[in-house]
Amino acid sequence: MRVVHVGSEVFPFSRSGGLGDVLAALPAVQARQGADVAVVSPWYASLVGAPQVVWEGDVPDAGPVTVGELREGGVRFLFVGLRAFERPGLYHDDDVERFCAFGRAVLPVLDALEITPDVLHGHDWQAGLVVAHANLRGWRTAYTIHNLQYQGRWTLHEAWGWTGLPDWAMQAEGVEFHGDLNLMKAGLWFARHVTTVSPTYALEITTPRYGEGLDGLLVSLARQGRLSGILNGLDQARWDPRTDPEIQPYKNALGKAVNTAALRGEFGLDAAPILGVVSRLADQKGMDLLLMALPDLVREWNVVVLGGGDPLLTAALTGWGHHPRVAFVPGLNEPLAHRVYAGADAFAMPSRFEPCGLSQMIAMRYGTLPVVRETGGLVDTVPHEVGFRFADATPEALTAACAEARTVYKKRAVWKSRVKRGMELDFSWESPARHYLELYARL
C-alpha cells in the first residue's frame, strides 16, 4: 500500500501542536505494518534538520519550488520549499494564500518524483486544496479533521484565483462558504472518506453545537457512510515514564512520588496535592473556566500551569504569580511539560470541545489522574474508574470534579488503584494505524 500523508507540520521537524505529533507517529507505525509511506509538508525557514535537495523546478501559479528529503523510521519525509515559507515561524496572517500555493505545488512535486500513491491522506484545512486536486485527478483520498474550528477561510472573490479549481466548484455545492473560500470544506467536499480523531467527536460535529457551520455537510457525509472517527494514538516511546530522560524514571506510583517531590521543590509548593495543566491558553481548552475556578481550587490544590496562547488569559494567569499555591510558566517548554506530567497528582482538561486530546493520555500513562469535561476524545479515553469527568462547561462543574478528586486522593489505596489502572491503559498507535490501513484498502 503506497500512502502519502499531507499536513502542515510534522514532529520533530516542525511542530506547534498535536497535528505534528500525529504526522510523526502514525506514518512510522504504518511503515512498520508494511505500508510504503511518505509525508509531505512545507519546508519552513525554521525547519529542524537539513533535508537533502531532491528536486528543483517551477510550478505554475506556485512559483519556484525546492524539495528536500529526510528518511526516518522507514518513512520518507518530503519538504516543499516555496517563497511563501521563507519567513520565520510556521503560521502567519496570510496562511490561506500560503497554503493555496502549497496545495498547488504538492501534486506536481509528486509527479516529478514519480510518486503515485494508492491513497493520498490530507490532514486539516492546510491540506484541503491538495485533497481537492487529487480527487479531480481520480486519486483515492482520505481527509482527517483534527480541529473543525480552524477552517482556512478567505474572501472568495480575492482567493479564488489562488486555488486552481474549476469554476463549478465556486458555489455552495463546492468550496464556497458564506461568501468565503473555505479550505476545510474543500477537503470535506472532495475527499472519498472523511475521518476525525475520535468516535465521539465524529458524532458531535454533526450537530449545530459542534459543527462550526459545516454540520449540514457532515450529516450528509455520515448518512453516506463517508464519515467516521478513529481515535488518535500516543507515541508511547516518547512518552514513557520508565525511560523518559526529562524525569526520574519510574514504573509505579512509588517511583512517581520522587517526581512529585521534585516538582513541588521546583516551584516552592506546599504539601497539598498538585493539579497540573499543560495546554494552549484558549477558550476551547476551557482555560477561562480554570481561571474562574482558581480561587476555589487553591484551597485544596497546588496548581501548576504551563502554556501559551491568548494574551488576555496569559496576563490573567501571570497575575496569579504571587500566590504560593499557583505556578504559571508561559509558552512552550517540552522538558517542563514532562516534569508536570510526571510530578502532578491530577491533571485538568476542562475543554469546551476536544477532538481527541493527547494530554489526558500522557497524564494517565504517567500515573496522573485526569479531571476532564465529557466531550470528544476525552469521553473515549478517560474511563470512569480512572479519571474524573464532568458534564457542564462551567467553573462550578470543574471545581466539583476537582473536589471529588481531592476526596478520593485522601483514600490512598483507592487513588493508587486508579493510578495503576491508568498506567496500564494501551494508547499505542498500532490499532489506529491498522484501522487507517483497512480504510485505505476499502477506498
UniProtKB/TrEMBL annotation:
GO MF terms listed in the record are: alpha-1,4-glucan glucosyltransferase (ADP-glucose donor) activity; alpha-1,4-glucan glucosyltransferase (UDP-glucose donor) activity
- Recorded coiled-coil stretches: none
Q: What's its catalytic activity?
A: [(1->4)-alpha-D-glucosyl](n) + ADP-alpha-D-glucose = [(1->4)-alpha-D-glucosyl](n+1) + ADP + H(+)
Annotated GO biological processes are: glycogen biosynthetic process
Which pathway does the database say it acts in? Answer: Glycan biosynthesis; glycogen biosynthesis
Per UniProt, where does ADP-alpha-D-glucose bind? R15
EC numbers: 2.4.1.21
Q: Which residues form the Starch synthase catalytic domain?
A: 2-218
Keyword Glycosyltransferase found: yes
Instruction: Respond yes or no to whether keyword Protease is given for this record.
Output: no
Protein's job: Synthesizes alpha-1,4-glucan chains using ADP-glucose.
Q: Which family does it belong to?
A: Belongs to the glycosyltransferase 1 family. Bacterial/plant glycogen synthase subfamily.
Query: What NCBIfam families would the database entry show?
Result: glgA
* Stated name of the protein: Glycogen synthase
The organism of origin for this protein:
Deinococcus hopiensis KR-140
Gene from which this protein is expressed: glgA
